[in-house]
Amino acid sequence: MFDLLPYNTFGLDVKAYAGIIVRSVSDLKTVSAPETLILGLGSDVLFIDDYEGLAVINAIKGLEIVKTGRTYQVTAGGGVVLDEFIQALLSYGITGLENLSGIPGTVGAAPVQNIGAYGREIGSFITGVEVYDLDTHRAFTLSHDECAFAYRTSVFKEQKQRRYFITHVHFAFEEGFKPCLTYPGLDNDPSLTSAGAVRHRVLALRERKLPDPRFVGNAGSFFKNPVVDADKVATLKETWPDLPVYPTADGKFKLAAGYLIDKAGCRGITHGHAGTWEHQALVIVNRGQARPHEIVSLARYIAARVEELFKVTLIPEVRIFGRHGEVPWERV
Ligand code: FAD
Ligand code: EPU
């Protein structure tokens, strides 16, 4: 059996039938199990059971930087720790990812849900993603457009592409600091004159709001922020005029799930050994020794309360895995 405790930030005591740490693409040639689960650091997963297949852990390292004209072309191994990657870029004077500082996980997992924070998404800097197909044992590169990045999603969440092990990610960064300071907490602050200062501020904001998985088990936002149309926003604003609403590129509106959960009376609650974070209701936490079913039943309770009060459906952001692989939320 292979211990998954170090590979799930919820801190659940779960195991896989077997596991392999992948340090180079050639290690993948030996992977031929019918059931495989690709993992980075497990900071966006919830195991509801032991996994009966092979856990394939990405530990491919490496960083390559080439400057062409005013553009830095950067390639990073999928197993590089994302925040170490961001720090390394900043140390070379390469800016762009500073708003994503402090997000746990690996570079290889970052394209999967197109990670985002404080007004930036990683997909806008990605030019290509190198993958190894665990079914066909072929390696190839997907272009930026083929990745189909959108809010918390990409092609890698589709059924066939879940067999694509991301080995390397290619990025392009333009020379010069172009700040993105519109998100609340950054507030177009004129003192944020360098990428380092933005990183520092983002880390401080995150520390205030989010629990550190080294001490409190969690997987960040448990649900995605729901996207609704203008009519729904107008109806909701009649009762909740301070409801935070963010317009999306396709003319819809993203609501803050944390606000909805908070207003539904679910911030800081405890059910069994699971709870919601006192400073950010969207984060479900393991209060110590939680069993998977306690986290699931709390998530269901929260979704039901929000549905009842706002008639808005919450969908998990966290990926849920059972004995034989990913389990859709409706079947958990
Ligand atoms: P894992 O959790 O190991 O895997 C996540 C998913 O990606 C799984 O489905 C897995 O199968 C797949 N996967 C992983 N690696 C690969 C690979 N190499 N190839 C193919 N598929 C792969 N996310 C945000 O977007 N913004 C935030 O601000 C944010 N804040 C967070 C704060 C906290 C405290 C925590 C715990 C999580 C937060 N997250 C956030 C979620 C998480 O950090 C990201 O989803 C991150 O990209 C997960 O990386 P990982 O290596 O841990 O992936
Ligand atoms: N809010 C409340 N009560 C709460 C939580 C939030 O009223 O308990 C309100 C806040 O006051 C604010 C709004 O909701 O007005 C939004 O809150 P916040 O700025 O904390 O961001 P979020 O929408 O809850 C998203 C991402 C985070 C990311 C932050 C910063 C999703 C699902 N979550 O959270 O990503 O770090 O924005 O950009 O999109 C993650 O994906 O795991 C994650 C942590």
Number of helices: 6
Radius of gyration: 20 Å
Helix content: 10-25%
Number of strand segments: 21
Main sheet? Answer: 5 strands, antiparallel
Keywords:
binds uridine-diphosphate-2(N-acetylglucosaminyl) butyric acid, 332 residues, five-stranded antiparallel beta sheet, alpha+beta
Short description:
20% of the residues lie in helices and 30% in strands. The chain has helices spanning 82-91, 144-147, 195-209, 230-239, 257-263, 292-310; strands at 2-3, 15-22, 36-39, 45-47, 51-58, 63-68, 71-77, 116-117, 120-121, 126-133, 138-143, 164-174, 217-221, 227-228, 245-247, 253-255, 270-271, 274-277, 280-286, 319-322, 325-326. The strands form six sheets. A five-stranded antiparallel sheet has the order 6-7-12-10-11.
